[in-house]
Specification:
This protein has 436 residues and is an alpha/beta fold. 39% of the residues lie in helices and 17% in strands. It folds into two domains: 213 residues, Periplasmic binding protein-like II (D-Maltodextrin-Binding Protein, domain 2); 213 residues, D-Maltodextrin-Binding Protein, domain 2, CATH 3.40.190. The chain has 17 helices and 15 strands.
Length: 436
């Protein structure tokens, strides 16, 4: 079989990258904190907004001068994998990648795994949040990355709307939320929605629908993806159950009821504006968004009287779960300064650096030590608390996942498919994508 010049270069770089050794995380000390030991030039490509990361690095280098030559370039998550492959092939790879678990599956073949001998499992587990384990390489061979920050889903509430309807505080459970629909949502006699309770039920105009559905599946004990005994990655949407309705059907049925005009919980439909815009305009009582969105919402409408609370949980839940975007530092194949890149990632997980990065970006730290410090900012306090029980899953590229999830939801609310059929089809599609 003939290969192109591009493929030949890429394979050669991959082979060389596999031989690059990284120094031991456990023996790296931070005795140089505030010192002048040079790490060298480090270029980070990341999917977090440039402004926040640059502000964090500028503040950190005031005391940690060894990071003075670290720069950050914001990249589009949708093109990051292709951009990185091209950069590796041409010898222009960055030294670090900062991306969430949603990009991990597509990036994994372009990443140098940190061996377990370099980063012991005990060190990793005792340092980082539980969701950080998603960056574990198959078969316990090491880690794809070092967790840095986490952005959990939270519940935004319009205080003016809730208080006007006699609701003292936002619902803590999904059951309590459902019961609010008849009192808070405003509908015309022809069932047109003039003010919604919450955006659930459709997909295209529900901001963060992918994360919301992921939260519901995870809260129901459905893992969404898993590695089989032979190492094959596959999807699991809970299409079967030992008792009662399969958990996946319960999740999709719960979600879609909010867009069903025949249900008392009807409060949303596909004709409405994007849910984040509706909330900013003051036409939506509750909004499910990531903690980092709080700053944007406040800036977009300074007159909006809103609060942030943890994502609702099932009333019967004995443990809490919430979907979170965990961002980690990954070392790409072909990195010119792999040792310096690892040092940089290690330094940025120190308590001092974590605190600065969290404030600058509006996210929560990924280290357990820093999460034990409760911040005064109320939004940060919610994000810190949720970070401890945040969860995720190894998914296909976000755009591909959206296509599968939106098709599943659309088929159910339109009546084209039953819950069972839509769920099975979605699971099969996700598995096919995960095995490409």
């Amino acid at each position: 079989m003939k290969i192109s010049l591009f493929q030949g270069i890429l394979i050669g770089v991959f082979g060389l990258g596999a031989l690059i050794g990284l120094f031991v995380f456990a023996t790296y000390t931070n005795s140089n904190h505030g010192g002048t030991n040079e790490i060298g030039t480090i270029v980070i490509w990341g999917t977090l907004p440039k402004a926040g990361m640059q502000a964090a690095l500028a503040a950190i280098t005031q005391t940690e001068t060894s990071l003075k030559n670290v720069s950050y370039v914001e990249k589009n998550p949708a093109t990051l994998s292709n951009d990185l492959a091209s950069a590796i092939a041409t010898g222009a790879a960055p030294d670090l990648i900062l991306a969430s678990q949603e990009e991990l599956h597509t990036l994994s073949k372009l990443i140098t795994t940190i061996a377990s001998a370099t980063l012991p499992a005990s060190t990793f587990v005792n340092t980082f949040i539980e969701e950080g384990g998603i960056f574990t390489a198959p078969n316990g061979t090491g880690y794809y990355g070092i967790p840095f920050l986490v952005d959990p889903l939270v519940l935004f509430s319009n205080r003016s709307i809730l208080s006007s309807d006699g609701v003292a505080k936002p619902p803590a459970t999904w059951e309590a939320l459902t019961g609010l629909a008849p009192n808070v949502a405003l509908l015309t006699p022809t069932r047109q929605i003039t003010r919604g309770l919450i955006a659930l039920g459709t997909y295209a105009n529900v901001h963060n629908a992918r994360g919301i559905l992921s939260s519901l599946f995870l809260q129901a004990g459905v893992p969404l993806s898993f590695h089989s005994a032979n190492g094959v990655l596959a999807a699991n949407l809970g299409v079967t159950g030992s008792r009662g309705a399969p958990p996946g059907q319960s999740v999709v049925g719960f979600y879609t009821q909010f867009a069903d005009p025949s249900e008392v919980s009807y409060t949303w439909n596909a004709s409405l504006l994007d849910s984040q815009q509706m909330f900013r305009n003051g036409d939506l009582a509750l909004y499910l968004g990531y903690a980092s969105e709080a700053r944007f919402i406040a800036a977009a409408n300074p007159n909006l009287n809103f609060d942030v609370a943890p994502l609702p949980q099932p009333a019967t839940a004995t443990v809490k779960s919430v979907y979170g975007l965990t961002y980690a530092f990954l070392i790409p194949r072909g990195a010119k300064n792999a040792t310096g890149a690892y040092q940089t990632a290690a330094l940025l997980t120190n308590p001092f650096e974590q605190a600065i990065a969290a404030v600058a970006t509006g996210l929560a730290p990924a280290t357990l030590t820093q999460l034990a410090q409760v911040p005064a900012n109320p939004v940060a306090a919610v994000a810190y608390a949720e970070a401890l029980y945040a969860k995720g899953w190894l998914s296909p590229a976000p755009a591909d996942t959206d296509l599968v999830f939106s098709g599943m939801i659309g088929n159910v609310i339109s009546g084209r498919s039953s819950l069972a059929t839509a769920l099975v089809s979605a699971e099969q599609s996700l598995s096919a994508l995960l095995q490409q």
